[in-house]
Each structure stands twice: as C-alpha cells, then as structure tokens.
Amino acid sequence: MARPLTAHINLAAIKHNYDLAKKLQPKAKAFAVVKANAYGHGAVQVAQYLDETVDAFAVAAIEEALELREANVQSPILLLEGVFEASEWQVCEDFNFWVAVENDTQLEGFLAANIKLGKIFLKIDSGMHRLGVEPNNVAPYIDKLVSSENLGELVLMTHFSSADDLASSATPEQLTIFNQARSQFPDLETSVANSAATLKWALPEGGWIRPGIMLYGISPFDDISAQTLGLKPAMTLTSKVISLRDIADGEAVGYARAYVAQGQSRIATVAVGYGDGYPRMADHQTPVLVNQNVCYISGRVSMDMITLDVTSLPYTQVGDDVLLWGEGNPVEVVAAHSSTIAYELVTRMTGRAKRQYHK
Length: 359
Description:
Helices cover 27% and strands 25% of the residues. By secondary structure, the chain is an alpha/beta fold.
C-alpha cells in the first residue's frame, strides 16, 4: 500500500478566496498569483480550474508561464520578474505573455526585440529596494514605452514591503512615493496591492490587484486568522499512524534524545518528515490532530517520520488518521511553532506527498 501522506487541495476554496479578493476591491481586476507551483498547491491544476474565472494569472518566470500554456491554460499570464534573456521576448509574443519591466536591460531588450506585447507592467521601486525603477527616473521609461508601436498598454506597478503590518507607516509612505511618480501620467492603470493590501488597506480604485497567499486560505497577518478574514484553507495535509509503542518514565524519543517522557507514555509514529516539507524546527508544542483530537510533537522531526505523545488518547491505533495542517489545525499555527511563516511550509512541499484535488 502507498505511503499515506496526502495533500488534499480544495479547488473550490481557492475560487472562493479569489472571489473574496474581487469583492473587497470591486473596481479592480485581479491576478491569481500561481508562482512557486501555486504556493505548493499545483499550478497546473489550480490554473486549469480557475481559467474561466480569473482576469489573468501571475507567475515569477517564463518557465512557470510555459508550463501553464502547455496545459492549455488560455488566460493572460504576467511574468512578475520580467525576462532574463533576450531570447525570451519572442516567446512572450508567441504565447501572449504580459511582462514586468524594471531595469534598463529589460527596457532596451523589449525595444530591440521588435515584438508586440499586450501589456507591460513598469515596476517602480517605492521603498522595497528589491526590484524597480527609481521614482525620479520613471518618466523616461514611460516615454519610451508609450511611444513604442509594439505595446498595447502600459501599467505602473509597485510592491509593498510591510502591508502585513497594519501599524507600520511604510505602506502609506510607499503609496505616496508611487503616486508622486505617476502623477504626470494619471491615465495609466496601476497595480499595487498584494494579499495583505487587498484585505486591509485603502487603495486607489481600479487597476489590478495581485492576491497571492490569500488565494490558498492563508492569512498574511500574524494576529488575524484566515477564518476571521473570511478565507477558506485550500490545503489539508494528512497522514496516518504507522507504529505505536509504550515507553517508561525518563526514556527518550528520537534523534539527540530531544524528548524525554514525563511518566509512562504512549508514542505514535506518523509517516511525514522534513523530506516531505514538514518543518524540522517544529517544537514540542506543535499541534497535530489524531482522529481530530489534539496531541503534540514529541521528539525531533526526522526526514520521513514524526513522533507524537498520544498518552491522552488511549484508543489510538495503527492506521488512525492524522491531520498535520488544514481545516481545524491552521498551517499558520504550525509555522508559528516552527520559527517560520506559512508561505514557506506550503511552497516547500516536496513531490512525495500525493496531491488529491477536490472541486
């Protein structure tokens, strides 16, 4: 029988979360961001399901976009980081990709390629200092792009560094810088909002929003749950108990003897580990559900297995269902006990976990 680790993907939940983003910003068009294999949920399956719903998709690079086209996904696709090689410009025209431009090399590459694109998103560095044109240098870029006969439409874009921190002044400061840079070009559409901004910030009306992590039912905020935001979790990661043993008071469990039993204890072994993407740093307060009952990690996470203290669950048997994260045990909680963020947990899921898609 196959190893029981399974990631159940609720496609209807992803559509619900996309529709919520549109409802929150009703005058905006919305990308469905499916980069990094749709944040670990399966880019092809997610895009195929949403293809007739979304305004467009967004990915990080051309390889991700080509994978979707090869799967017969028809909606427009934006390359959020633009192109990396001159040869990619022709591919963008051939497959109707939209492209971000954020530096001189990309600008001159587009102009020299003599290809036609439906949209270019000119990225402005409003304070993230990662990608983007300097605000005081935007006008020359716009002049060259607008004067090109090969471009259908130009959109101005930026990215927020701290939209997940509602107490930070960074987001309004970045908006001010962005608005000043585009003030001479009021007729151009804009795209500024990631998931956190879409959910909680006042934004310019219209343009394009870019919901990413919220599509998968995960909150971008440390102190606001996905449920409170109206999001539905899209991934439920499950496995099964594969072994049970009783250990005496003072006996240790797992590598480095990191967990020592406090009294007579019953230990369950579960088929999942960091080789599957489960976080090795999960502490001994990390909750796991066995038959919907809460228990906790006991011992270090190993490559293929974890161990749980099920002393309080005396009827536990080999073959019992284990819910690692998802409905009833949010991935955000698991991430918090693992000194990381939920984004990392879902995107680093390996191919060993079977994906089952539910509509």
